[in-house]
User: Fold this.
Amino acid sequence: MGQVTVNLNGHHYTIGCADGDEGRLRVLADDLDKRMASLVGAVGQVGDARLLVMLSLLLLDEMEEVSDGSSASAPTDAAATAAIESLAARMETLAERLEAT
Assistant:
């Protein structure tokens, strides 16, 4: 099992992943960090747990918009939806861990 240390909002998190998925996880984490920085710019530093919840809601909203799109891109939408759902579940787990500390 691989491990990747990612940076979100100035904090480092070590995340386990399947071997070979490290690069993809880094790309996703970089995108997530950029989105979080944009959110911090809009609402300020309101705490990591709250930021993760807000970001999760924004990502789920994007996912819903994608799933409401044209049926011509349904296979791509299904893959994107699955990836976003997986990421949302990971973020919820991180938020729970942050709230516990």
